[in-house]
Amino acid sequence: MFYHKLSEDAELRPLEARQSPELFALIDDNRLHLRQWLPWVDLTRTVDDSRAFIELTLRQFAQSNGFHAGIWYQDELAGVIGHHRIDISNGATVLGYWLGERFQGKGLMTLAVQAFVRHAFEDVKLNRFEIRCAVGNDRSRAIPERLGFKPEGVLRDAEWLYDHFVDHVVYGQLAREYLR
Ligand SMILES: CC(C)(COP(=O)(O)OP(=O)(O)OC[C@H]1O[C@@H](n2cnc3c(N)ncnc32)[C@H](O)[C@@H]1OP(=O)(O)O)[C@@H](O)C(=O)NCCC(=O)NCCS
Known about the structure:
This protein has 180 residues and is an alpha+beta fold. It has helices spanning 20-29, 31-35, 47-62, 108-123, 138-146, 175-178, and strands at residues 4-5, 10-13, 68-73, 76-87, 92-99, 128-134, 150-161, 164-174. It has a single domain, classed as Aminopeptidase (3-Layer(aba) Sandwich). The structure holds coenzyme A. Coenzyme A binds next to β5, α4 and α5.
C-alpha cells in the first residue's frame, strides 16, 4: 500500500474498506457543495455505497487500470483523487478529484494533482494526462491552469448534472512538455 506526503499536514493514502464510514460522512456533509459539479452525489445514499466505491477502486488498482487515493489533512479525510482509467495502448489517463468544502483554499488538490502527474510521467511513463472540467467550474479549472496544462477544446453537453448538461473544457499535458 502506498503513502505519499504532500506537505507537513497532508498526505495521499489508498482508500480502504474500513474507511467507508469516514468517506460517506464527508460526502454526506458536503452534498450541496459536491452536487454542483459531480453527478454521483445523489446515488451515494448509505455507507454501503461508499464501501462499494472503495472496493471498485481496489479492483481498479489490482487490474492496473490506475488508482484512487484519499487526501488526508491533519489526519482527517479531506477528499479523493483518482484516475478515471489508464489507456495503456495510447499511454494516456484522465483524472478526477474533489474536496470537502472546508478543505478548499489550502492548495491540497494542486499538490495532489501534481503528485499524480509526476507519477504518471516519471514512473508509469505515460504520454498524455487529461483533466476535464465543466466550463463554469472556476476552482477546478484553476488547478490544471496552475500546473501548466493546455486547454485543448470544449466538449459541448459533455456531462448530465441532475437536470442540465454542462460543457467540458479538456486540459491536456504531454510527457514532452512536462519533462522539458
Ligand atoms: C475543485 C476543487 C478540488 C478545488 O479546490 P481548491 O481548494 O480550490 O484547490 P486547491 O486545493 O488546489 O487550492 C487552491 C486554493 O488554495 C490556495 N493555496 C494556498 N496554498 C496554496 C499552495 N501551496 N498551492 C496552490 N494553491 C494554494 C490557492 O490560492 C487557491 O485559493 P483561491 O482559489 O482562493 O486562490 C474543489 O473546489 C472541489 O472539490 N469542488 C467540488 C468538486 C469538483 O468540482 N471537482 C472537480 C470536478 S472536474
